Amino acid sequence: MISKHSHEQSDRGEGVEVVQNEPFEDPHHGNGQFTEKRVYLNSKLPSWARAVVPKIFYVTEKAWNYYPYTITEYTCSFLPKFSIHIETKYEDNKGSNDSIFDNEAKDLEREVCFIDIACDEIPERYYKESEDPKHFKSEKTGRGQLREGWRDSHQPIMCSYKLVTVKFEVWGLQTRVEQFVHKVVRDILLIGHRQAFAWVDEWYDMTMDEVREFERATQEATNKKIGVFPPAISISGIALLPSSVRSAPSSAPSTPLSTDAPEFLSIPKDRPRKKSAPETLTLPDPEKKNTLNLPGVHSSEKPCRPKSE
């Protein structure tokens, strides 16, 4: 479903390029899948971010999927002090495990945020009735048309717990950027998981071989759609991930950084550069470090822990 979403959101040089998708074996976590992607952003940054970002800009995403445990990391060569680290754990409950990340973040201040795929509001521009869990009814599974309180009554149910840590160690911008990224990550998780639920009839009967073939075909089509023509993507073979990297936790195939295409257009020389953030952003005390703990999302020094979907 991530491959499908990436293809839909990619066009004219913007979107998600798949660089690598290989199986590998980790000595601690066992067999898994490693993916590396480049997320090209040309229209999603706020004006204060566009002022310092080059026109050709992309974020590197590396993910290690050892379902039911995964790790995803986002970095940017242009911003060496910026990173997003997401650890994901899946459990068959409704978000009742409050200590699931105690070992990973026991010394960090966290904010816990519950994401409800049925009742939480999403930006109007992203809304589709066919992807609304309150209206969608699966023909193959009978699941769907979730109502208020669905987490207490529906079975089967799974919670995707996410520990999200955002770091941007640049004086004067740290708090603002970390808060902004946490909000974006939360919105992406909400939209992405709504789609995964609403698209269940498309993937429910697939075997793993069919999943890999779908990924291969979709990823090659997406790379061509955004104007990238790399060698054919390999979905099988020996893991190419160095052991030093594989030791870190990884997240399941990660959701694209944003559901809108960003415009990283350089600011014209005749237009003064904005010095203040958009009015929609809140500027807290820069001395304070901010972290968001979502059902699968955390920020800055505070990791966030998500709750049931």
UniProtKB/TrEMBL annotation:
Record flagged with keyword Transport: yes
Biased composition (Low complexity): 249-258
Keyword Transcription regulation in annotation: no
Top-level taxon: Eukaryota
GO molecular function: phosphatidic acid binding; phosphatidic acid transfer activity; phosphatidylglycerol binding; phosphatidylinositol binding; phosphatidylinositol transfer activity
Keywords attached to this entry: Lipid transport, Lipid-binding, Transport
Similarity section: Belongs to the PtdIns transfer protein family. PI transfer class IIB subfamily.
Task performed by this protein: Catalyzes the transfer of phosphatidylinositol (PI) and phosphatidic acid (PA) between membranes. Binds PA derived from the phospholipase D signaling pathway and among the cellular PA species, preferably binds to the C16:0/16:1 and C16:1/18:1 PA species.
Stated name of the protein: Cytoplasmic phosphatidylinositol transfer protein 1
